Known about the structure:
Elements: E1 3-9, H1 19-27, E2 36-41, E3 45-51, E4 64-65, E5 71-79, H2 82-91, H3 101-112, H4 116-119, E6 122-130, E7 135-140, E8 149-153, E9 156-160, H5 163-169, H6 179-188, E10 201-203, E11 208-213, E12 216-221, E13 227-228, E14 231-232, H7 239-259, E15 265-268, H8 273-285, E16 291-297, H9 305-315, E17 318-324, H10 326-340, H11 349-361, E18 366-368, H12 373-376, H13 381-394, H14 420-427, H15 442-448, H16 457-462, H17 468-473, H18 485-512, E19 517-519, H19 525-533, H20 536-539, H21 547-552, H22 559-562, H23 575-578, H24 584-589, H25 592-598, H26 603-616, H27 625-645, E20 659-662
Helix pairs in contact: 1-5, 2-3, 7-8, 7-19, 10-11, 10-18, 10-27, 11-18, 13-18, 25-26, 26-27
Amino acid sequence: MCGIAGLMVLEEGGMPPELEQIRVMAGALTHRGPDEFGVYRDSLVGLAHARLSIIDLAGGRQPLANEDETLWISFNGEIFNYIELRQELIEAGHLFRTNSDTEVIVHAFEEWGNDAFGRFNGQWAVALWDSSKKVLTLARDRYGICPLHYCEYGGRLYFGSEVKAIFSANSAIPREFDPVGLDQTFTFWSIVPPQSVYRGVSEVVPGHVRSYSIEGVSDYCYWQPRFPGEGLDLFSGSFEEAVEALDHTLGEATRLRIERSDVQVGSYLSGGLDSSIVAALGRRYKHDDFRTFSLQFKDAEFDETEYQKLMVDHLGTQHSEMVVSQQDVADVFPSVISHTERPVLRTAPAPLFKLSGLVNDSGIKVVLTGEGADEMFAGYDIFREAKVRRFWARQPQSAWRPRLIERLYPYLARSPVNQREMAKGFFGRNLETWKEPGFSHQLRWQTTSAVKRFYSSEQKASLASVNVVEEFLGSLPEAFGSWSFLAQDQYLETRTLLSGYLLSSQGDRMLSAHSVEGRYPFLDSDVIDFANSLPASYKLKVLDEKHILKKVAENLIPDSVRERKKQPYRAPDAVSFVGGGTKEWVRDILSPDAVRDAGVFNPKAVAQLLKKCERLGDTPHRYSNTDNMSLVGVISTQLIYKQYIEGESLQPRDVKLTTCVDRL
Length: 664
């Protein structure tokens, strides 16, 4: 991962970008790209780049241009099919000066314009400046693996991989919470782009291109998920043929992510199905030493050490691991939030922050991870829950249909299905809406919204006319109703939790905090299209999640790992901050004055929440889901206020430029 940033003058006669301002933006992103720093400037645009060198180590410096230096690029990410595209472009007459994937983007954009992005297989956030046409293009990959924010202020457009680059560029840019962004977070677990938690700051929507000129701005959707029903043919082969095809497609996706790198690639290994498959495939294509990395927990409820060791022995990797405690989570959490740049409802990013530090210390810049498998192949309990509830809704008076609920969430110490009558009442809500969009996620969204009871009166008033669920459901694609129920549920999951939380707060931001790039074979464009084409029963067979993926795994990983009950990655939440006594920094940011200053929550309600959690003590399973989400959500929001609204985290480093193109 690299860091990109820049600005554009949007008004005729505006002052040119200041070179120092562009350099400061690069300095705000040194953690993303510590190897080299570059800037470009002319009378209208400034581009900044912080490089993590992975492909063409000597020749891939940025900003980079085409042959006549009229098209300039600042790029974060990887284009894994760049070698094939490069050959196609050479045959079309393009001349190359480097061996980088960055230059392939430049020539592809010259050749195909915005349609180039649909040809890329990879992960990217890119800024392209056509100095002859005077058009700036911002684009983002299909699922938003790479972040890209923008803000218009004072006749200028500011953009960057992270918000801190934008705020660092101009201290006059207002730094305020956006109530709608917060409300989305406390409903969906995340913002939904283009929304952000900062007023006036937006995100480029995944799968979209934004083009800016003096005349105005346009937004173009080059990709959105397709499913059978409209836009994609249903896979017509047998299940066995589908298994064979997936084995090939996923293997090829992993091979590209191993071989398309000029530095060593390792792999995360949690001990679950997804990361075990990825590590096994990675081992297949990595013939020399293969590095794997794992998290272990002092709390047995979260620990998967047994299965990690099985996989390490099976693969024969060079393995590194670290043990994380509740204290560790609390110690790093302020740094974690400085990198997420948005509130979170779980502490799960914190151990991954520490793990990426271990990867960096081991001299590894790139790791494979298993993200995307649950979304593409229906691995989450929310898909099984929705299937059970729809089955129940067809005969709501049935006595035995609701008993299927007891097969859900077996990994939770405080599972919602442990008390039968209570579970029946909870999961039986709104069954009459089983055909409506959002049915699968309505219980999660309602449960998450319990955090809103801590809102201040001012926050409630600012949201009086806002219904984020209605607005989100109103933005669904026209084809949504023609898809299968499972496809609809998968779309909702990828549009909310995957893009805004798993790939961002828990993914890119924790990896880039220690200058590490994550690569995601399950989010390969060919894997996505193939998974979306499959019949629902190939993915979720009755209640067997990831059915086809488990079949693919038969020849890759031990049966004991393949057949184990699913245990989603989790970490100790609220207990980390109050167990063994409330941490002093927690007490400070949750003080009545601090809460009142931030304005989001009611100080009295927060004080009561803290006291309740302190009474619950040191044992994680004593805390309810609402307790955990509420305390973590409040703490992280207060940290965002302190670090970004008040500005404590806005201290970019001074950087020495290796590339400086100044056209003034």
